[in-house]
Design brief:
Layout: E1 16-23, E2 26-31, E3 46-53, H1 57-66, H2 71-77, E4 79-82, E5 85-86, H3 93-102, H4 106-109, E6 115-118, E7 136-139, H5 192-195, H6 201-207, E8 211-215, E9 234-236, E10 243-245, E11 250-251, H7 256-274, E12 288-291, H8 298-310, E13 313-316, E14 322-325, E15 330-335, H9 337-343, E16 355-359, H10 380-383, E17 387-390, E18 397-399, E19 403-404, H11 408-415, H12 424-429
Parallel strand pairs: 1-3, 4-18, 5-19, 8-9
Antiparallel strand pairs: 1-17, 2-3, 2-8, 4-17, 6-7, 10-11, 12-16, 13-14, 15-16
Length: 441
């Protein structure tokens, strides 16, 4: 078989840019086809976005200091490091990554977390949408896989996990519509991309004839194709919460060796795409509390707030020893209208949590005892993540002015010579492009 590249990757570093951000483990590649590259005089033909799960600013600083000859240190030496960057809240899982590819926070994207409650949908499996809309769970994570126990999410490949690079590049092939919430108007399942309220950098790139690809931990990240569904051309989404150890039933996150094995598949997929092929090598729970109530009245929300703040909670420390925390482990609770105001949406918005709790420093909510750290909360240490933009022919510089990860999306479009204003979230929130030089007085 003759293999022809779908698009030609940069032969030299002078035509590529790398954007590194902290939040979730994912990677993407966008590139200009040769037929249109002359329309973009900026010289950047390809952008690779790498988002690292749980990476904070202090981690990047420490790593570069102790590994001065590493790839990260090399990138920093000819890039722009934003040392005072913050994520939106909440930033764990979906909302953290959605911010980077839309330029918007949950208020405009509609994604508050990967498993939420929406008061304006019918439950999964509904076929007759009559009567009052009851509201239902809106889960966009491994729960919507055809088979969440298999790394191919139910595609049915043989020879797994070694054959995983043969996984379909169309996530719709491994998503079970019966597990999706149902639109009360159309009475049809709402796919992850349809749940997203604004477009993405991938939609804008496709509208200008660029190639796009994305690799992530669940097929549910099909959301990045945007409302139109045309954003990402090649997905690689092996299910990270599938069974990795058949003897114990443990998933790929429970052991460092297993996690590195899983990550190696995704690295190879991205390398294949950089080389001009598709991903296969051929052409082609947390430190914040978000509650959704069946009774949305202010009185019900206030009752929950009072209960949480006046009751202690049992837990364990990092050694597994029992401890008791005051106020349910929370330092602040926003109820009803206050929760809506926190996110900047109307109180009647069907997606925002009815009660929002901000965890005390050091408190993590989890279903077991293994987790000793987390990310995605509102604590400064959680939200202060690194952004490093490595540019060809650029001398390293550090910018200490406050920025947000939402600014990554419009910056990628600007690097590719495209108009950031084509992003709907940028229009709504007036999201800025990351500056390349410190502001002058």
């Amino acid at each position: 078989m003759q293999i022809r590249p779908m698009w030609r990757a940069a032969a030299i570093a002078a035509s590529a840019a790398v954007v590194l951000g902290g939040a979730t483990l994912a990677s993407a590649a966008t590139a200009q086809p040769r037929s249109t590259s002359e329309n973009h005089p900026g010289g950047i033909k390809h952008v690779l976005l790498i988002s690292v799960d749980g990476l904070h600013q202090q981690d990047l600083t420490w790593y570069i200091l102790n590994n001065p000859k590493s790839v990260l240190a090399t990138l920093a030496h000819h890039g722009v490091e934003y040392s005072n960057a913050e994520t939106p809240f909440p930033s764990d899982s979906s909302p953290g990554m959605v911010a980077q590819v839309t330029g918007g926070d949950p208020r405009v994207t509609g994604y508050y977390y990967d498993d939420t409650w929406n008061h304006d949908v019918f439950p999964a499996g509904t076929t007759k949408c009559t009567g009052p809309v009851p509201g239902a769970e809106a889960a966009y994570e491994e729960a919507i896989d055809k088979n969440s126990n298999s790394i191919d999410a139910g595609q049915g490949l043989s020879g797994l996990p070694g054959s995983i690079l043969q996984m379909t590049g169309n996530t719709l092939d491994v998503i079970n519509p019966a597990n999706l919430p149902v639109d009360p108007v159309t009475c049809k399942p709402i796919f992850a991309n349809q749940y997203l309220k604004v477009n993405t950098i991938f939609n804008v790139a496709r509208n200008h004839g660029l190639r796009t690809a994305w690799s992530d931990k669940h097929p549910a990240y099909q959301m990045f194709s945007g409302p139109s569904g045309n954003g990402v051309q090649d997905y690689f989404t092996p299910e990270i919460n599938s069974i990795a150890n058949t003897a114990t039933g443990a998933d790929w996150t429970t052991d460092n060796a297993l996690t590195m094995q899983y990550d190696s598949y995704k690295v190879q997929a991205i390398l294949n795409e950089i080389d001009g092929f598709d991903h296969s090598g051929f052409s082609t729970d947390d430190d914040g509390m978000l509650l959704w109530l069946s009774d949305r009245s202010q009185a019900a929300a206030d009752f929950v707030k009072n209960y949480l703040l006046t009751h202690s909670a049992a837990g364990n420390n990092i050694n597994g020893n029992a401890v008791t925390v005051s106020a349910s482990g929370l330092k602040a609770v926003y109820a009803g209208a206050a929760s809506a105001a926190f996110f900047g949406v109307p109180n009647g918005d069907p997606r925002h949590p009815d009660v929002l709790g901000i965890a005390q420093h050091g408190v993590v909510y989890t279903g077991g005892k293994a987790k000793i750290a987390e990310h995605g909360g509102d604590d400064r240490q959680d939200r202060n993540v690194p952004i490093l933009v490595a540019l060809p022919g650029f001398s390293g510089v550090t910018i200490g002015a406050p920025v947000e990860t939402t600014e990554i999306a419009p910056t990628i479009l600007r690097l590719l010579g495209l108009n950031p204003g084509e992003l709907q979230a940028v229009q709504i929130e007036h999201t800025k492009v990351l500056r390349r030089r410190p502001a002058t007085m």
